[in-house]
């Protein structure tokens, strides 16, 4: 079941409602895609669910599917428009997970070697028995 909306309107809710200007890329019944005002590289697009849910965990399976269907369309359009060397698709949840706007969204970022964008985290390499123990804790339904 979908989770609650953020208690206050977010900047994304205001963009989607037309209360603030944006450079819209795509819109359908459930999703809204627009240029990120803080471009990592030219063509950096944000794809948001129109319903103001905070995180991926607050979406129904159908909403998640709709969001990522639009991410796929936008990534293909970015590829056609900018011919990048790569594309980073990034979705974050809650401040500890690097989320800065409490409205579900996905970054579609055209990438180039040496563009200065980095995603760094410590890499741990536990033994296989530990990986299997961790996997056994996760129940996907």
From TrEMBL:
Native organism: Azospirillum thermophilum
Domain HIT span(s) in chain numbering: 11-118
Biological processes, Gene Ontology terms: nucleotide metabolic process
UniProt GO MF annotations: catalytic activity
Residue positions of motif Histidine triad motif: 103-107
PANTHER family: ADENOSINE 5'-MONOPHOSPHORAMIDASE HNT1 (PTHR46648:SF1), HIT FAMILY PROTEIN 1 (PTHR46648)
SUPFAM superfamilies to which the protein is assigned, alphabetical: HIT-like
Keywords: Plasmid
Superkingdom field: Bacteria
Active site: 105 (tele-amp-histidine intermediate)
Gene3D superfamilies: HIT-like (3.30.428.10)
Classification via InterPro entries: Histidine_triad_HIT (IPR001310), HIT-like (IPR011146), HIT-like_sf (IPR036265)
Name under which the protein is recorded: HIT family protein
Pfam families: HIT
Keyword set includes Transferase: no
